[in-house]
Amino acid sequence: AKAWHLVSRPQGLPTIDNFALRDLPDAPLDHNQLRVRNRWLSVDPYMRGRMNDAKSYTASFQIDQPMTGGAIGEVVESRMEGFAPGDLILHMGGWRDGGIIGLDMSPFKLPDEALATGMAPQTFLHNMGLTGGTAWIGLLRIAAARPGDTVFVSAAAGAVGSAVVQIAKAREMAVIGSAGGAEKCAWVKSLGADAVVDYKARPVLAGLSEALESLGKPGIDVYFDNVGGEHLDAAFATANDFARFAICGMIDVYNDGHPQEMKYLIRAIPARIRMEGFIYTDQFFECMEEFYADMGGLIASGAVTMRETVHDGLEATPDAFLGLFSGQNIGKMLVRV
Ligand code: NDP
């Protein structure tokens, strides 16, 4: 098996030279190990933070070590109780085409009931996994969004954002989504968003104000932040009293680390804005059953759908990852091994 290794720490936007594809050592399995063949790899913006040598909520990638991340694989050999050859598993041994997986890679057998409905296995890397779970927890638990709320979500054509749009519509909220470019905005609209803002065509605040006016809404009750920067500032500018901001991500600053000036931050006081950053794993396990039941139902009814942008072959993994920062994905960015 082969795996992508981090060979140097990126300064700013990573380049292909930060990564190298190398062989993994092979060995007979020990107790509590699986041998897997990976089918799908996830690339996610949070992995950029793991490339820095800085303390965060996930451990840094080590230089000259294989990188990790979400993956769907098929078990080919098992010395772990509860796993048999042929099982499809979700695990953290991504950025590789397969190899040995131990308990440290959190293997999880995909539920037979879900697969029996015809659900594609890679759904557990998006709507039934990290990105869908993040959308669901952030919108419903962190922002406590309710029917009738006006919700603004940035990166709305991405994996998390597109799930937020659809969950909010299924809960009878008004939704404004922002995305870069006409094609993405049209897709966000087709998911049910009441209005869209093309942030590449005009300033976010101008687009958001116009969208609110067209919907006859005085301001936003909820902001689901995936981007930070100008988007977050526009949310401060347009927030209704007691608005809730779920701070999920700030991809606009992942590569330079310096948020831009917030001209409207002071509105947090008169509008009594509650702002909460969150990490999906903090809450996922305690609400997993409720999430699977609710999201599974929304997917089965067609209320929540997913578009995938797929790169083929392990070799393409760094390109897929880098594409997240230039918006090359619509829906979830994936690698098919
Ligand atoms: P996406 O599928 O949304 O992909 C990233 C998208 O971000 C791109 O397609 C691009 O869309 C947009 N983007 C990139 N750079 C910029 C920029 N400078 N300004 C505005 N938009 C930009 O990724 P995910 O759905 O996986 O993640 C979305 C966010 O959620 C990220 O910030 C991520 O870190 C965060 N996250 C947080 C988690 C948590 O537990 N807190 C868990 C999972 C994700 P466009 O073409 O529209 O610009």
UniProtKB/TrEMBL annotation:
- SUPFAM superfamilies to which the protein is assigned, alphabetical: GroES-like, NAD(P)-binding Rossmann-fold domains
- Stored InterPro entries: ADH-like_C, ADH_N_2, ER, GroES-like_sf, MDR_fam, NAD(P)-bd_dom_sf
- Oxidoreductase as UniProt keyword: yes
The beginning of the lineage is:
Bacteria, Pseudomonadati, Pseudomonadota, Alphaproteobacteria, Sphingomonadales
PANTHER family documented for this protein? PROSTAGLANDIN REDUCTASE, PROSTAGLANDIN REDUCTASE 1
Q: Which organism is it from?
A: Sphingopyxis indica
Print the keywords alphabetically.
Oxidoreductase
Segments forming domain Enoyl reductase (ER)? 14-335
Name the chain's protein. Enoyl reductase (ER) domain-containing protein
Cross-referenced CDD domains: PGDH (cd05288)
Kindly list the GO molecular function terms attached to this UniProt entry.
Answer: oxidoreductase activity, acting on the CH-CH group of donors, NAD or NADP as acceptor
